[in-house]
Specification:
The complex is a heterotrimer of chains A (about 325), B (about 350) and C (about 675). Chain B is built from 13 helices and 2 strands, in the order H-H-H-E-E-H-H-H-H-H-H-H-H-H-H. With about 350 residues, chain B is an all-alpha fold. Chain B folds into 2 domains: about 5-90 and about 125-335, MetI-like fold (Orthogonal Bundle), CATH 1.10.3720.10; about 90-125, no CATH class. The N and C termini of chain B lie far apart (about 55 Å). Chain C contains 25 helices and 22 strands. Classes of the chains: A mainly alpha (about 325), B mainly alpha (about 350), C alpha+beta (about 675). At the A-C interface, helix 2, helix 3, helix 7 and helix 8 of A face helix 13, helix 20 and helix 25 of C.
């Protein structure tokens, strides 16, 4: 198992190298160093300022090794990423580590409660629906799920802001302030919207997974032995449904860190999701590559964790 | 070749192939029984899906000329679909409420009083027309994307899970690389490279959305590979391809169906977010919703645009989900055994 | 287990207690106030910004949201009169507006005299000069230092090309680059580098409180640049100290100035706070009664009526506010909603809320009853559709044919309807390049091609050889392209409207929407065809608009993105540029405009009108038509605001209680049955 983990992690290293290359290619396919400079300097900047900006920030060098072997951007891209020297943002020259530090707090404050509340809730609800399968509760549940799934998250946000914040005045409409006495005021609504908007598809997915297990032979055996329904659900069904659940859960973990793009943007929460989107829209290569690099590292680790948790949850899965 | 000619050809090819599929289904007893029981279980949902498909097809057949387009001179020598022709001369100046006789703001008389079932939008287009135009886009986004993404993920997921080793490594590499890239950046890059059209957005969405399902397939195959019957088949010397086709693939069928349904609705929904981010498809319900986002805070409120887009979307997804559920029940042999 | 069941079934009282407690906790924590601090006894103005400032370095910043903040922190030499229209310069830190002196060699000198004794804000950076020192006076050297920074390639100011008019400044920058190749030189602090590179001929110090700026040719608009933060005094200590090392922020995140406010909090992703600066010259020397330090006595006639000018106000010491809180808001709808709740003091009107806020041309009764007031101002800006003159079909290569085509297309666009549909009527159909409020604007001028006339347009199209949009030479329909980087539906719909207007002529214009980068690439390569653009004034002079069409500004990356090159226009432009605002200049401008009228390089669409809403606890606020700082003139009544907010923001809690009751009613019996069953 340890050998497996080490092997997987070293493959992960290769993946990260690939991601860095792929990002470099994709980014400079979409944007040129001139575009980066233009975004940094603003609409009215004259061509001379753009040229100067490129010189000051090292974007005047050739991109590829075959253009210049000793001084090209691809190599220095790898060099700075692999030495964890993230440097400064192209948009505003702020150290990127500082950006990540200030953005991670709000992002995690939003996604972690969303995850910790949302997951058990949807697993519980889907268990309930699975217990009452083939009854009106199940049918109602499915219809409610589909109803919930057919509504765009944009509508959930606008609806919540209108109803809860504007009409009922429970929380501010949007914004953020990290001082402890008010921070939950700002986060409650986005957390609520995040959970409600995803609960439909989650419950539906877990219901399918549970029904799958409910129909298996060992469940019937257990029931024949006289096990209570609750015990069957907890002991047999939930346990055996762990693989699909784990896949969903562990893979979601790195994305807790990268934040929720739509919620952050609409509720004005200065997190990492909003930071990444701004980096994409603002041609901020230095910030974007760091976010992607860190995301890829987390992702690789999460992948390995998924496989390990498979084998822990289901002894039939062998890791070699 | 012009886009509308291609659309006509593809549509007729699709129609022909669906007739062939129906004929094939009729020949096979198992499938015709399955379809029969599907029809018995969900007649309304199937009817609704068929209705959407019909609108989508009507909006995919184009020809030039023979159109009365009012002030719009250009339309006369443009290719127009059946739906376009139905609404050719329905343009107003600005907002009007459903079935109204006058404009919503300012009460100027309409060109076609009492004719607009769901009113008109900001620049006077009939909302029913817009919603109908959205059907084809939604079917393309949901259907075409799934049709590209699902075979891809099955191919890669099964080979990775079943063969393991080098194959798994390569798939793992491609998957992880794609999954680690921000979706938005990938979408923008792909769309920019292929040009901004519905089909290229579908391809881009497929590239970004196959990874999740692929991972699921890989995990499930890992599990199936260890099942007794697979081990037995392997011991008996059945070829790998046979094992995959006979034992692995059928056991993934329900996952495929569920995923198709989920990705279909997910894609149509995420298109709304994409529209908000500026990578949306022209004329989609997502665009209508995104536009209506601001109309909802108008006062007096303009609700018909979002109602039309939301209801069309909801109707399609509900029907698709219902049919998908029923298919799952029918195709899954274990549920078959248990059902009375 | 039995005991639990009993407790649950018999413990309704306990459940009730818990429920009441939960409700109370909820009710207490529930508030829609976005602010943690009390603000009923300090004068805090709450304002918003959309984009996080990229830099607050006055030499570099060239965008609206950051220059608003910089100009409150950094005092400029000159500034704009708060109330007078047309806009008028008044002295700021300069003792008077300098009179330009033309020299025999063609150069022009601007002699500046500074107010002696004006101090910087307190800042630890000043310890660098002298231990224990918290501030120091603003002196000539700081201005020369700041102006030299504009030419420093390492600073990379976007306006370096404007200031290279200063004699010898460009050469200074080049010498600097040359010397920086020695590592020992490059390691020196910036002010020592500048010292070592030697003086600039065009920057002449005359003691600690006077200096002369010499430019190489007459350029009357130069004075306006001294009213912008680019030319504000920069202390060398701040540059040396705030270098981003050892936990110190960079100067770009920590500007040090001598303005009426200083920055006390900078979390640029969501909150920026300015506080009153006790060292500001207006606060330290109230006896000076400097024009920029006291409330003006005169304004426009209408200001008297609105109470913006009055005898009681005239001459009062500025600033009125103790603190300005800027919060970041990316979307316009929440800003407006928070404004209605009293959490922002001012707001624009978004398109969606317009019909609720306005009743015809007036504020609606609901709004007026809430004590909300409205002011409106025409922005110094123009929005237009432009044709790329380098284009084969539409531009100069197509000669007379292209011109007729452009004229026809111009006649098809109904600006009035456009404004009504997409701007709620907030705007004036543009007749020329110049918006109202500028010298040379003529309210009676009517552009012959800006009155929609489809019949005439069709006739012109036929003359151009495209009857009904079909090329009579080749017989194939004309295909045109509208290039845009608008990608979401809200931005695309107005373009759809324009395109549909042209369809009425038979012109098939396809909308090509790409990313911003791709669009820029097309413009750079002159591969664009029809596009929509706007220009917001830097300063209130017609030159700042007319230059957009001069050949000097054409070429890759230049602001003349329609690539219009006309020697006749250029000659007129040069003549107009150097003239004071007299009849000759007006006549020249008229000639230029009539040339443009015929040429149709642009289809002038609209001059936008901004509607500003504000609560009545704000007093004497007058919105400016372009960006200059008015913070120091505004005042609020914090007490009145606090009361209003309390009155209008009580949370509506009954739905929460109803929800809670329902869930208890559903869950408790369920649990009870479940437990009973298990027995």
């Amino acid at each position: 198992m340890l050998a497996y983990v080490i092997r997987r992690l070293s493959y992960g290293g290769v993946v990260v190298l690939g991601v860095l290359f792929f990002l470099f290619v994709v980014f400079f396919w979409v944007a040129t160093p001139d575009d980066i400079a233009r975004r940094a300097l603003g609409e009215k900047a004259p061509p001379e300022a753009i040229e100067q900006w490129k010189i000051n920030h090292g974007y005047d060098r050739p991109l590829w090794p075959w253009q210049s072997l000793e001084d090209n951007m691809l190599f220095s891209h790898y060099e700075s990423m692999l030495t964890f020297d993230f440097g400064r943002s192209d948009a505003d020259d702020v150290p990127i580590l500082e950006k990540i530090r200030t953005g991670a707090g709000p992002s995690l404050a939003l996604t972690v409660p969303m995850f910790l509340l949302g997951l058990p809730l949807s697993v519980m609800l889907s268990l309930v629906v699975a217990v009452f399968r083939e009854t009106y509760v199940d049918r109602m549940g499915v219809v409610l799920c589909v109803l919930g799934m057919s509504v765009s998250i944009l509508l959930y946000i606008i609806g919540a802001q209108f109803l809860i914040a504007k009409l009922l005045r429970w929380f501010p409409i949007s914004g953020f302030d990290p001082s402890p006495q008010v921070v939950m005021r700002f986060l409650s609504l986005p957390i609520l919207v995040g959970i409600v908007s995803s609960i439909g598809s989650n419950v539906r997915f877990y219901r399918t997974v549970f029904l799958e297990e409910v129909h298996r032979d060992f469940v019937r055996t257990a029931r024949a032995k006289g096990c209570g329904e609750a015990r069957i659900m907890a002991r047999h069904v939930l346990r055996n449904a762990m693989i699909p659940i784990l896949t969903q859960v562990v893979i979601a973990i790195p994305f807790l860190f990268t934040g929720s793009l739509v919620l952050e943007s609409f509720f004005g929460i200065p997190g990492l999701g909003a930071l990444t989107v701004e980096a994409i829209q603002g041609n901020d290569f230095a910030t974007l590559r760091t976010m992607v690099f860190v995301g890829a590292l987390l992702f690789v680790v999460a992948q390995v964790l998924t496989d390990v948790s498979y084998s822990l949850a289901d002894p039939r899965v062998r890791l070699e | 070749m012009e886009a509308w000619v291609i659309s006509n050809i593809v549509t007729s090819l699709l129609l022909v192939s669906s007739v062939l599929v129906v004929l094939a289904v009729r020949r096979s007893r198992m499938w015709s029984e399955a379809m029969g029981s599907l029809w018995k279980r969900r007649p309304i949902a199937i009817g609704v899906v068929a209705f959407y498909l019909a609108i989508g097809i009507l909006d995919s057949i184009y020809w030039v000329g023979g159109i009365n387009a009012g002030e719009d001179v250009v339309s006369a020598h443009e290719a127009k679909s059946v739906i376009d022709r139905l609404f050719a001369d329905s343009r107003e100046r600005s907002y009007s409420a459903p079935l109204a006789d006058v404009e919503f703001y300012g009460s100027a008389p309409l060109e076609n009083p009492g004719w607009h079932l769901m009113g008109t939008d900001l620049i006077g287009r009939d909302v029913v027309y817009l919603a109908m135009k959205g059907v084809r886009v939604a079917l393309l986004i949901g259907g075409l994307t799934s049709l590209i993404a699902i075979p891809l993920s099955l191919l890669f997921g099964i080979s990775a899970g079943y063969f393991g080793g080098r194959v798994d490594d390569v798939v793992f590499f491609v998957m992880s690389t794609l999954a680690s890239m921000p979706t938005l950046l990938l979408l923008i890059a792909l769309i920019m490279a292929m040009g901004r059209s519905t089909v290229s957005i579908c391809i881009a969405l497929a590239v970004t959305s196959w990874v999740g399902f692929c991972r699921l397939v890989r995990g499930e195959t890992l599990k199936l590979r260890e099942q007794d019957y697979v081990q037995a088949a392997r011991a008996l010397g059945v070829s790998e391809l046979q094992i995959i086709l006979r034992h692995i693939l059928p056991n993934l069928a329900h996952l495929v169906i569920i995923t198709f349904v989920l990705t279909f609705s997910g894609l149509v929904l995420s298109e709304a977010v994409l529209a908000w981010l500026g990578v949306g498809v022209d004329g989609s319900w997502g665009q209508m919703i995104d536009q209506a986002r601001s109309e909802l805070s108008r006062d007096p409120v303009v609700w018909w645009n979002i109602a039309a887009a939301g209801l069309s979307l909801f109707g399609l997804l509900l029907a698709v989900n219902m049919v998908g559920d029923a298919i799952r029940d029918i195709l899954d042999p274990r549920t078959l055994r248990e059902s009375p | 287990m039995m005991r639990v069941a009993q407790w649950v079934s018999s413990g309704a009282g306990v459940v009730r207690c818990v429920a009441v407690f939960a409700c109370a906790a909820f009710a207490l924590s529930c508030s829609n106030s976005p602010y943690p601090d009390r603000d009923d006894d300090v004068k805090i103005l709450y304002s918003v910004y959309g984009e996080a400032p990229k830099t607050l370095d006055p030499a570099v910043s060239y965008n609206v949201s950051s220059s608003r903040i910089i100009s409150a922190i950094c005092e400029t030499l000159l500034e704009y009169h708060y109330l007078k229209r047309p806009y008028e310069l008044i002295p700021g830190l300069a003792a008077a507006i300098p009179e330009p002196v033309e020299r025999a060699d063609g150069t022009v000198a601007y002699p500046f005299a500074l107010r002696e004794g004006a101090m910087y804000q307190d800042d630890p950076a000043f310890e660098l000069g002298e231990v224990g020192r918290k501030t120091r006076p603003v002196v000539t050297a700081d201005y020369l230092f700041a102006l030299k920074r504009l030419a420093d390639p390492a600073v990379n100011s976007p306006v370096a090309h404007i200031f290279s008019k200063i004699v010898g400044l460009h050469a200074f920058g080049e010498r600097l680059v040359e010397r920086r190749k020695e590592p020992s030189f490059a390691a020196l602090p910036l002010h020592e580098q500048y010292e070592a590179v030697g003086p600039v001929e065009g920057l002449v110090a005359q003691g600690d409180y006077a200096f002369e700026v010499v430019i190489d040719a007459p350029y009357p608009q130069m004075l306006y640049w001294f009213a912008m933060p680019f030319t504000t005094a920069v202390p060398w200590e701040a540059i040396a100290y705030y270098d981003g090392n050892e936990g110190r922020p960079r100067f770009a995140d920590h500007p040090v100035g001598a303005g009426p406010f200083r920055m006390t909090h900078y979390d640029k992703q969501f909150r920026i706070v300015l506080e009153r600066n006790p060292n500001w010259y207006g606060a330290m020397y109230p006896e000076w009664k400097a024009p920029g330090a006291v409330y003006p006595a005169e304004g426009e006639p209408a200001d008297l009526e609105k109470g913006i000018t009055s005898d009681a106000l005239a001459g009062r010491q500025l600033p009125f506010l103790d603190r300005v809180e800027f919060r970041r808001e990316k979307e316009s709808i929440p800003v407006f909603n928070k404004f209605l709740q009293g959490y922002y003091d001012k707001s624009g009107i978004n398109k969606e809320s317009f019909d609720k806020v306005m009743d015809g041309n007036q504020l609606s009764e609901d709004m007026a009853a809430m004590g909300i007031q409205l002011d409106r101002v025409v922005d110094l800006a123009i929005y237009y559709i432009a044709f790329n003159q380098a284009d084969e079909t539409l531009g100069a290569p197509a000669g007379e044919r292209g011109k007729k085509l452009r004229q026809a297309m111009s006649l098809a666009i109904d600006a009035e309807e456009y404004i009504e549909l997409f701007h709620n009527g907030r705007g004036i159909p543009a007749q020329s390049v110049l918006p109202p409020g500028l010298f040379g604007y003529d309210a009676d001028y009517r552009n012959a091609y800006r009155e929609p006339d489809l019949a005439r347009a069709r006739a012109l199209l036929e003359e151009a050889g495209y009857p009904e949009g079909v090329d009579s030479e080749t017989g194939s329909p004309l295909k045109l392209r509208f290039d845009t980087y608008a990608t979401n539906s809200a931005q695309l719909i107005p373009i759809r409207y324009l395109v549909d207007s042209w369809r009425k002529l038979g012109l098939d214009v396809e909308v090509e929407s790409t990313t911003y980068n791709k669009f820029q690439e097309k413009v750079f390569n002159k591969a664009h065809q029809i596009f929509q653009w706007g220009w917001v004034a830097d300063y209130p002079d017609p030159e700042n608009f007319l230059f957009l069409l001069s050949s000097g500004m054409a070429g890759p990356g230049g602001p003349n993105s329609s690539n219009y090159r006309n020697p006749e226009y250029d000659a007129l432009f040069d003549a107009m540029k150097a003239r004071p605002n007299d009849e000759v200049r007006a006549e020249t401008i008229r000639e230029m405009l009539s040339l443009l009228e015929e040429e149709r390089v642009w289809i002038e669409l609209l001059y936008r009108e901004s509607f500003v809403l504000f609560h009545d606890w704000i007093s004497h606020y007058k919105p400016p038509g372009f960006e200059f700082s008015t913070l120091k003139y505004q005042d609020i009544d914090a007490q009145a605001r606090a009361e209003w907010r309390r009155e209008n923001n009580k949370p509506v809690l009954w739905p929460a209680y109803v929800l809670l009751a329902i869930s208890i009613a559903v869950i408790v019996p369920g649990i009870v049955t479940l437990i009973r069953e298990r027995q």
